[in-house]
Structure formats: structure tokens, C-alpha cells
Amino acid sequence: MNDEKALLCKNNLIQHMEDFLDYKIAQDEYYELSERCYSEYGDLLKKYYPKFNQKFMEVVPEACLYYIDEPGLDDNSREIFRNEISNLYKVLIAL
Q: How far apart are CA 39 and CA 57, in angstroms?
């Protein structure tokens, strides 16, 4: 049962990335959805998908903190954030 929840979390995190990269959701919404998902199932993700978890945690929290939470977000910062998520997406779908 817990492995199914971990897989659901993994799939949801990837889906949120896809939605963001396809301009279906804004980066603020991406941040909120990913944080909610990870907060609920992050421990299971660590246990069942440690490589996925490691790669996700290497990029997303810092990128969200720097490119979303920091005041004065400009178009260049938005593009850098999008590139960070795009590059991570390519890594995560291969895991």
C-alpha cells in the first residue's frame, strides 16, 4: 500500500512538472502542488524511490526558494526557473 502511495507521489510530481512546462499552471501553482504532494508523501518517496527523491530535492526546493519566494521576480528569473525544472524533468522521467 505504501509503495503505491510513493508511486502516486512520484507520478504526481512529474505531472506537475509537465503541466508547468506545458504552461497549464503557473510557477506559483507548481510550487504549491509540489510542496503539498511532497509534504504528504515525501517519506515514502525517500524509501521507495531514493534516486528520484535525491534528484528532486537537489533542485526543486532551492529553485522554488530562489526563483519564486525572492522578491522582484523578473522574466529572466522565470526563464531560469523554467530551465531548471525542464532539465530536472528530463532526468526524473528516465528514473
A: 12
d(CA 58, CA 53): 8
* Count of CB atoms situated within 10 Å of the CB of 44: 20
CB atoms within 10 A of CB 31: 22
CB 20 within 8 A of CB 30: yes
| pTM to 2 decimal places | 0.87
- Measured distance CA(44)–CA(38) in Å, rounded: 9
The tens-digit pLDDT sequence of the chain (95 residues) is: 899 999 999 999 999 999 999 999 998 899 899 999 999 999 999 999 999 999 999 999 887 776 665 656 667 778 888 999 999 999 999 98
CA distance 38 to 12: 10
The answer to whether 85 and 17 have CB atoms below 8 angstroms apart is: yes
